[in-house]
Amino acid sequence: MKLRVVVLCLLATACSCASASAATGPCGTGTDSPTCHLWNGKVTFIGDGDTVSVKLDDQKPQDAPVRVRITGIQAMEEHVYTSSPSDRVGECHAGEATARLEYLVGLSHGRVQLAAIDPASHSGSRVRRQVRVKINGTWRDVGRIMMGEGLVLPLANHAEWAYNSSYRVLAQRAAQQRLGMFNSYWCGPGPEDLASLRVWVRANP
Question: What pLDDT does 200 receive?
Answer without folding.
Answer: 73
